[in-house]
Amino acid sequence: MGSVPGERQTTSLKIVRLKESLISSAFQRALELKKEDVETSGWLGRYYKDHDYQLILQDRYFSEKQLEVLMTYLDSAVRHGLNPEIFYAAEIRNLWQKMEDVKPENTRDAYRDKVRMEVLLAASLIKYSRAMQYGMVKPDSLYANYFVATRSPDSSMAIKIFAIRDLKSYLDSIQPKSPQYLALQKALQMGAGTKVMSKAEADLVIKINLERLRWKNKPAAIKYVSVNIPDFSLEVIDQGKVIIQMKVCVGEGRNKDYKNLLSNDPDTGLVRDQPIARETPQLSSIIHSVQVNPIWNIPASIARAEIAKYVASDPDYLSDNDIDVYKDGKLVSAEVIDWEQVDHYSFKQRPGEQNSLGKIKFLFNNNSSVYLHDTPVKSAFKKTNRAISHGCVRVEKPLELAFALFGKGKTYDQIKRAMENAYPRAKNISLPVKIPVYLNYLTAWADVKGNLQLRKDVYGLDMVLYSYMKNHQLIPLEDLSSANN
Predict the structure, then answer these.
(1) DSSP string spanning 172-195?
(2) Does pLDDT of 484 surpass 90?
(3) How many beta carbons lie within 10 A of that of residue 340, not counting itself?
(4) Other beta carbons within 10 Å of 377
(5) CA 2 → CA 5, 12, 483, distances in Å?
(6) Strands (E), 209-345
(7) pLDDT single digits (tens) 103-160
(8) What is the rounded distance in angstroms from the CA atom of residue 285 to the CA atom of residue 435?
(9) Where are the beta strands (DSSP E) in 112-189?
(10) Euclidean distance between CA atoms 485 and 480, whole angstroms
(11) CB 152 within 8 A of CB 286
């Protein structure tokens, strides 16, 4: 006796549900990716469920024979200083070969392989796209003193990979193309050591800086001020050209003796970022004004650690250095100061030849209370290692910097006269056109002649970044091997 229509419908529904369950189960197993890709796994799981678990990329790239293109780019990740295996290169290649060899294609294992290939292709393209356009490391989560506006990818980047038809055109379009990046790639390919670094060490420094150059934190302004902390230099850039360059002194760093260039932790490979209080932060802001003949509001930390000692050995230190001390808004004499309660006082150094800020300071908003300023101690610029300040940036040619920012005219003439005044008074002057300022940390770059420049890691930030990349196996396998020997 035949089954009734209702029974046939129930049976068909059970078969559909069973198939859906098998497909869902196959995808769930395939979504077991690297531990650092947990977020991607969750997003892909939701995406494929919403799209009925279709094999979108696997079917497309197999039928259009584009997998060779993808593998070429993944293998070339070493040109970016990256390990191809973070993009699942070997597993994709092995699975591809297996799927080419194994017949018939309608077995359960064959279907699982197809699903695994689908997920690997999606995860690989998402990760590679992120690496090329945003870098592999989030600097604001790695560095304690990082306050640079840095863009991160969102879900729209991941969604776009499912619309890619021409893989080569897409992968070409996302390659970093800045002159600096291409110059470092060339230097990496050629290989070069220096008097201060071996070839292997220089290669790792280049790879670390390639990662920095992939971060979306570069100046968009036509004109801006850029300070490179480990190079102890400042440049004013206008329409892509350096219009002025000078030496600077930056904050004292934890690696001032350059005892270590790269991390060599035998256990974890990790170096935590633990900056000392005097290090100049990485930041981006806007120079909005200057103070000519500035008053130095001396931080309590400096008063406690330094000025108290000077006064203890020289009772006339405050008066000799034009420092006034206030409590509750009233001027007090050095004799009545309770040095155990320094935080209850404010210390101010009057404008003049002895003022530690020199004749001018350049102001921009930031939470680290740092700024650019002049200095009366010009001999500091003759030092090779100029990481010697309390955190602010001392500039070698303050008047030239003022001219570069304000330009020729009455305001600049006013600044020049005020700085030359024998009876200085503090005066704030706003910039008519605000200028972006970037305090950066680059230890490898190409100069205007195309020559590779390498600098030592004065703040240990190369060590921090390298140890993270090593721990997450982001750098090529040969580097991981040599670093462990």
Answers:
(1) HHTS---HHHHHHHHHHHH----S
(2) no
(3) 9
(4) 11
(5) 9, 15, 73
(6) 223-228, 233-238, 241-251, 282-292, 296-298, 323-327, 330-332
(7) 655 567 778 888 899 999 999 999 999 999 999 999 999 999 999 999 999 888 999 9
(8) 9
(9) 146-147
(10) 9
(11) no
**Residue in this structure with the two tokens 């390990």, named with its chain if needed:** 83
The amino acid at 465: L
Residue 387 identity (one-letter amino acid): A
CA distances 77 to 48, 84, 123, 176, Å, are: 28, 5, 16, 12
Residues contacting residue 221 through CB under 8 Å, at least 6 positions apart = 435, 436
Query: Cα 442 from chain centroid?
Result: 9
What CA–CA distance (Å, rounded) separates 407 from 333? 43
pTM: 0.90
Residue 416: both structure tokens together: 């020049």
**Ranges of H-type helices in 177-336:** 179-190, 199-214, 300-302, 308-313, 317-320
Catalytic positions:
373, 392
Q: At 280, which amino acid appears?
A: T
CA distance 381 to 368: 24
* Cβ-contact 307, 347 below 8 angstroms: yes
